[in-house]
Fold this protein.
Amino acid sequence: METEQPLASYRRMPEAADRGAPHRATERGGASVTVLTALTALTERPVALCAAAVLRIGYGLLYLVFLLREFPHRNEIWGPGSPWTPELARQLFDQTGWVSFLTLSDSRPYFEVCYAAALLTSALFMLGWRTRVMSVLFAVVVASFHARAIFMTDGGDNLILLMAVYLVLTACGRRWSLDARRARQRTFTGRAGTKNRTAHPGPGPLRQQLNVSRRTVTAVLHNCGMCVIATQVCFLYGSAGLYKVQGGTWGDGTALHYVLNLDLFRPWPELSLLADEYPVPIALACYLTVLLQVAFPFVLFGRLKYPVLALLLVMHLGIAVFMGLPLFSGAMIVADAVFLPDRFYRHLGQVVRRTGRGLMPTGRRSTADGKPVPVPAQPAPSGR
Amino acid sequence: MEWPGGAVRGGVGTVDAGEVDGPGAGSARRGDGRPPEPSRASGRPPRPVKVLRAGTGATVVLCLATALLHVFLVFLHVAPPNPLSRQYSRQIDAWVLPLFEQNWRLFAPDPESVNRQISARTAHTTPDGRVQVSGWFDLSALDNSAVKHHVFPSHSAQNALRRAWSSYLETHGGDDRPHSQRALMMQHYLTNIAADRITAHRDGTFESVQLRVITTPIAAPVFAPAPAPAGPGSATDAPKSAETRYLPWWKVGSHGN
């Protein structure tokens, strides 16, 4: 591990930190050890696989819930009956370069089929079934629906679109997915049959190199994708905070007073009016909001990120309830989750499993997603 | 490959590790390090292998370069206009738009400090040539009541009319004559929203609609002094008292029942 010390950002990448580092870099020796280690990490090991899975599940679920919630309004928002007519949408596409499969036909049955396909895609993406293919389809669905109703979107939709596109690059199906379960089952059966295949000749050098290349490219794409996602979230908070700094009402602590009085973002007027009666907490909340957003990109490399993430979670829950923006808040919360290390998620997984086992004593417990030996002292129930 | 524990084995892989899920197992999911030794031991690797290695290296470099470039261009897109982003605006737009377009000025620099009540009325010309004008129909009230006491308000209530009007303002300014194609499109959009909503709630046919927008400022908090002047569109840019704006009569397509 000592060879990894100079790479602060890499060190906090949990996948790498938890396991013994490969000794290849030290084998080769020399001054380029650090660079080699970094390259090895980048090209061989996909980082933060649990966080990627959380993004997949989070955004898949959010979009599924969104589509189901808007089911009664689907024709008004995306359908041929929308006031933003297919003709207007196509006209705008010509100007902006957008494309959407929803404007290929103006017929209602076609739209209904697309809608059903979007629901199915979101569900399968969330579950992680053939994840790479589904991630591409999910991105196409989100982009198409976004483009078709571009004047109906807000920041939450924008974030979901960006994440859907970035997630195509990641190996977000490696954890907590149907793909992972299938791979695990195949491993068990494969192990059982290894004895019969000992005489089987190994694959040729080209095939081996193909496998290595595929792994390398997958890992690099994933790592680049996760870095871009993390940077994107930093840009989001940084710019949101810095633009607020320029505003007078955030400075004098009255911005949230105006927010609380916007009719369209006041689902619980009684609650908003009640909150509006406390100017000092409101002013503090204004300052805290700006401070958190501006500070966000700078606290990510230390332990300070945990309280900041917790406060942001509270802030977004507040936005969801007070302003009636659960989709936006959900998108932000899921985005924040990318900064939690896999150790955290593995621990969470264990807690969930333990709870689940308590509820279902006869259930299978071989669904370990974490470390090679994730659960202490359990009798191996299957495959052995 | 995925071991039962789910960990991806890094570093020097064991030879059998690659065999379990075989080729064509969907997305790549193996993590063992490099080809086993025999190919090395038997001398130099064959030419296709070398080509493949070089191709992989090039792909890695390309991925890294693209990621860095993307992050850089998105930064310039998000940042306020500066000499760099002005000089390369064409390249930035070509890369970022439309897929990666973003704007995180949520309630910034200041949140909106007005509520808008948008109403519409319709006109119908009878066969004998008389023009019947309806009473005002409150479009915003529909939105407000759809939002009120709802855990998850619909985009059709929170965003449709609100964003249609703000886009109209952006493309028209104070003038109601459309000077661009986009402005004309926004006018059509607003007309359609009004016509659709009125048709859904009222009987009768009509050929044209008129919109009226009443902009009511949100009162400053009682404890606060008058806010200092700030940028356009901000809280402090708002009128001190309610303003009413009447839009021209706009023809609609075949609407009504």
Summary: Confidence is low (pLDDT under 50) at residues 1-28, 362-384 of chain A. Chain A touches chain B through 132 residues (CB under 8 Å). The longest helix of chain A spans residues 205-245. Chain A has 19 helices and no strands.
